[in-house]
């Protein structure tokens, strides 16, 4: 069934819309959180670049240092997400 169009009343037409509150928006993350997150992505990328390394499979850089760098990058990323924004 079709719905009928009901014309708004004159009182409703004359009322002014409410003004939006000019309160500042409190964001969940701060600028420092985003910077730390970007640094953590760069550290993870560096770790993966270190993993590519040379053709030697048993290179210390590939099997020890690169995974530590990647885990440090992920740890920094988790900390950047969980860090409370400064008020």
Run of helices and strands: HHH
Helix content: 55-70%
Mean pLDDT: 84
First-to-last CA distance: 55 Å
pLDDT < 50 stretches: none
Largest sheet: none
Tell me the overall shape: elongated
Structural class: mainly alpha
Secondary structure tally: strands: 0
Number of helices: 3
Taking all Cα atoms into account, the compactness measure Rg is 27 Å
Strand content range: under 5%
Structure description:
This protein is mainly alpha-helical and 87 residues long. The chain has a domain at 29-87. It is 57% helix and 0% strand. The protein has three helices and no strands. It has helices at 10-14, 31-52, 60-82. The termini are far apart. The relative contact order is 0.17. The mean pLDDT is 84.
Briefly, what is this?
This protein has helices at 10-14, 31-52, 60-82.
List its traits.
mainly alpha, 57% helix, elongated, 3 helices, 87 residues
Give a topology summary:
Layout: H1 10-14, H2 31-52, H3 60-82
Helix pairs in contact: 2-3
